[in-house]
Design brief:
five-stranded mixed sheet, three-stranded antiparallel sheet, rod-shaped, disordered N terminus, 48% helix, alpha+beta, 513 residues
């Protein structure tokens, strides 16, 4: 048999498998041949060892043979045996000619050490993977244990949400402020809170005026306007008499305008200017500057102070000609010489005209320190009950006293208490509902919106007109505007006519929601 050519592209394991299968087939053929030979020898032995039989026995055996399903032909068995022997010899000869050199040469290239290293490396990789897997399984068990201990999340109860319903705000609202904190609400109706205080002040208002006027509180203000302590102290006796009628700032500025115009200020002249400024609806320094200009023959500034507005006829008229000035106040006309003395005389007489005389006395400016002392005593009174305590404050820049309100301990009402059928909160809502101009203003702290929703839900159930806004803190400030006090700090100067006015954006109008 010719040698098989090596096939370099065939892989080694496949070639070895084919050779092994060839060997197996050969062995099977040999076994088949040996079985055939054994059967033939056994048949011969059986035939030779058979005992002699009689004719009857032969007939009986023949009958039995006939009953067999198939007859065995000894000649065919011998032929098969011979064929098997021939095939066996042929296979033996082919096996002798099989070329095993190629298989042996390929076996030389198999590196068992490399295979062993690969096996060891894969074993290590498997062990490392097993360690990581064990860690992951342990972490999984730990997380399962934590999950079993974790509290089951319960969603919060549903939140009350209402759609806004914008409505017109009352023209003269009676506002009740409801200050909403995280723990509950505080009620504050400013008119009801202030009324007992104002009633008490009204009873003793005659004691709240200036009993004695000291220079010290006004020193800084006057020195800043008049330029020096000496000028301020010189002017003080002349301007102090107006302390209960006009802001000292305006009196000092009028004094300064007269001095700058070469006119000697006096108590009487300042008093006349104060009276004239009332019907002209101007401040004292503006009137003083117009009078100074008139003493120099220029009546333009004085005419501009006319309080009448078209189409009403003018009240103030003035004209200068031939060294004289003709002044008119309504139907009263007078001609004077264009000299400072005569012009000042006209204004002195004008201040005595009915409707002008003593008009400045209709205005009362109270002593802020006396009001503060009175309110401090009222703050400690147990008769003033409520959720807030207050502290009066006099600020130098304000013409009124302020009350700084602070919530009292234990004041207000909790959310749970509000929900009771006849709670103070429910009664308050009913009172606001019964008032045609009643309005509830919810002022909500930044962290109290949920409390506001609960409070607003109860208010909506009653049908209260309401609106809301954010509140930075629960402390409030209330102004006692009915009792004017002296400012101790000068106000910023007004913008001149040519200066560009500052652009301001008006806040949105309040409406019910």
């Amino acid at each position: 048999m010719a040698k098989r050519k090596p096939h370099e592209e065939q892989e080694l394991p496949f070639v070895a498998l084919m050779d092994t299968m060839t060997n197996v087939v050969g062995v099977l053929i040999i076994v088949l041949v040996m079985v055939g030979l054994s059967v033939a020898s056994a048949v011969k032995k059986v035939l030779s060892d058979l005992p002699p039989v009689t004719k009857e026995e032969l007939q009986q055996i023949q009958e039995q043979v006939k009953q067999l399903p198939e007859k065995i032909d000894p000649q065919k068995v011998e032929e098969q045996q011979k064929q098997a022997e021939t095939e066996f010899k042929r296979v033996i000869e082919e096996l002798k000619t099989v070329d095993t050199a190629d298989l042996q040469s390929k076996m030389k290239f198999m590196d068992l050490d490399a295979f062993q290293k690969q096996l060891d490396q894969r074993r290590k990789d498997r062990e490392a993977s097993k360690v990581e897997t064990d860690k992951m399984l342990a972490e999984l068990e730990r997380l399962k244990a934590l999950l079993d201990k974790t509290h089951v999340y319960q969603p919060p109860p549903p939140t009350y949400v209402r759609l806004p319903n914008p409505r017109t705000y009352p023209e003269k609202p009676n506002e009740t402020r409801i200050l909403v904190a995280k723990q509950g609400v505080l009620f504050f109706n400013q008119p009801k809170f202030l009324q007992p205080i104002l009633d008490g002040m009204e009873k003793v208002k005659s004691q709240l005026g200036y009993q004695k006027v000291d220079y010290a509180p006004f020193a800084k203000l006057l020195e800043g306007i008049l330029g020096s302590p000496a000028n301020a102290q010189k002017a003080w006796p002349e301007i102090a008499v107006l302390v209960d009628r006009v802001q000292m700032e305006y009196v000092a500025q009028a004094y300064k305008a007269l001095v700058a115009g070469g006119i000697e200020p006096s108590k009487h002249l300042l008093n006349d200017i104060a009276d004239i400024s009332t019907p002209t609806r101007q401040t004292m320094p503006v009137v003083a500057e117009a009078i100074v200009a008139a003493t120099k023959g220029d009546v333009t500034a004085w005419v501009k102070l006319d309080p009448a507005r078209p189409p009403a006829p003018p009240v103030i008229k003035a004209s200068a000609a031939s060294g004289k000035i003709t002044f008119s106040w309504g139907s009263i006309t007078k001609e004077v010489k264009a000299t400072p003395k005569d012009v000042l005389g006209y204004f002195h007489e004008l201040a005595k005209v009915p409707g002008i005389e003593n008009t400045s006395k209709a205005r009362t400016i109270y002593d802020g320190t006396r009001i503060q002392a009175l309110l401090q005593r009222a703050a400690s009174s147990p008769l003033l009950a409520g959720s807030y305590g207050f502290e009066p404050k006099v600020l130098p820049s304000l013409p009124y006293v302020q009350l700084a309100l602070t919530p009292k301990g234990g004041g207000g009402e909790t959310i749970e208490a509000m929900k009771q059928p006849n709670s103070p909160y429910i009664r308050l809502m009913r009172d606001i509902k019964a008032d045609p101009n009643g309005v509830a203003i919810f002022q909500v702290m930044p962290d109290a919106f949920e409390a506001y929703l609960e409070a607003r839900k109860l208010a909506d159930e009653v049908g209260v007109p309401a609106t809301w806004e954010f509140l930075a803190k629960l402390d409030l400030v209330v102004n006692i505007t009915g009792y004017e006090v002296q400012r101790l700090v000068a106000t910023p100067p007004r913008a001149t006519a040519g200066a560009a006015a500052a652009v301001t954006i008006a806040p949105p109008k309040r409406s019910l929601d």
